[in-house]
Amino acid sequence: FLPEHKPCKKKYDTEYGNASFGMSVFNLGNAIMGSGILGLSYAMANTGIILFIFLLVAVAIFSLYSVHLLLKTANEGGALVYEQLGYKAFGIPGKLAASCSITMQNIGAMSSYLYIVKYEFPLVIQAFTGANDEWYTNGNYLVLLVSLFIILPLSLLRNLGYLGYTSGLSLLCMVFFLIVVSESSIVLGAVLYQIFLTVYAVPILTFAFVCHPAILPMYEELKDRSHRKMQGVANVSFLAMFIMYLLAALFGYLTFHSQVGPELLHTYSRFYKSDVLLLIVRLAVLTAVTLTVPVVLFPIRTSINHLLCPAKGFSWIRHCIITFVLLASTNALVIFVPTIRDIFGFIGASAAAMLIFILPSAFYIKLVEKESMKSVQKIGATIFLICGIIVMVGSITLIVLDWIHSSH
């Protein structure tokens, strides 16, 4: 932003939020690290350790670079809403592209979280009660109850900053999950290097680092915000999540090798059905993903508000209706989509590629007018845009071909 000694700051630059640096790190870390961590061991099994580490580093750097582009574009474009940037850059098509990408990506993320609740919560209840055929061991009922009594009240909060404490608890639960996974792999694992199918590796990795719909809302609520301060929040969050992702993927893979499934907890449940420690881990992960859903829902609701009612002020009635409809539709999706791999792969290949690669670079090229197209920054953004298109088209093509091959 403009240096503090210069006058005439833009209105959006002076209306600061009240979220501290630490709370913003918790919220952003929670937005980054959701159920994506459960698919990374599967990605490593498909690529081998060396190629996986290379891909993880590359995707993390690309994702962080796109955050830099997004923040700089918000500064130059004078908007802190993704859809407004899209509108300023490309009019209605840009606004629709941003809104649809955010909605697809975050509904996919919410679906993957609730999918875990649906399939893991019944196992926890069965372990405690010994019941098998009761209504309260039905995953469909349980995911509806969790959504109604835990997720909905948290999602109805007006400001994202209030979720900093629940985000901190969510991250602590995931740290506990990581510790137990690492301990299990040390006992059971041996290094195995094998490179085979890579169809789902890049989409799963791309999905695991998507937090871009939440960047601008968090930037808006950051206390005494500046481009540099928000970039610092992103740097700390990305570094922490990169380390946790790498360790979780490595230890999960070393434990099961090629037998690891698309969802790591489900893989553990096949081998350690009566292990008390892993039962506690399952509870911790359930807590983590449940508390992440409200953080992910905020950007979708903001997107829909700006798409349908851009000129209207805040309305509690509209706020509640949009929240309820989003949760209801996501629950319906969770009940009918059979595998989490389809959610990770397809959403990661389409909407996530748009949000990480294509839209931030396109907005930057269009809105940052003070730099010429021959500048290093614009050339870098153009290369980034081309890479994003290649990643999206290539990944979707591979996934579709894999589906066709699997059906025969």
Automatic annotation (TrEMBL):
| InterPro entries in UniProt | AA_transpt_TM
The cellular location(s) given in this protein's UniProt record come to:
Cell membrane
Tell me, what is an example of a GO biological process annotation in this record? sodium ion transport
Q: Which residues form the signal peptide?
A: none
Task: State a GO cellular component annotated for this protein.
Answer: plasma membrane
Q: How does it sit in the membrane?
A: Multi-pass membrane protein
Specify the superkingdom: Eukaryota
Q: Which UniProt keywords apply?
A: Amino-acid transport, Cell membrane, Disulfide bond, Glycoprotein, Ion transport, Membrane, Sodium, Sodium transport, Symport, Transmembrane, Transmembrane helix, Transport
Q: Where is the Amino acid transporter transmembrane domain?
A: 18-399
Q: Enumerate the transmembrane spans.
A: 21-43, 49-71, 135-155, 162-180, 186-211, 232-256, 276-298, 319-337, 343-367, 379-401
The chemistry this enzyme catalyses reads: L-leucine(in) + Na(+)(in) = L-leucine(out) + Na(+)(out); glycine(in) + Na(+)(in) = glycine(out) + Na(+)(out); L-proline(in) + Na(+)(in) = L-proline(out) + Na(+)(out); L-phenylalanine(in) + Na(+)(in) = L-phenylalanine(out) + Na(+)(out)
Question: Could you give a GO molecular-function term held by this entry?
Answer: symporter activity
Family recorded in the similarity comment: Belongs to the amino acid/polyamine transporter 2 family.
Q: What is this protein called?
A: Sodium-coupled neutral amino acid symporter 2
User: Species name for this entry?
Assistant: Gouania willdenowi (Blunt-snouted clingfish)
Highest lineage ranks of the organism?
Answer: Eukaryota, Metazoa, Chordata, Craniata, Vertebrata
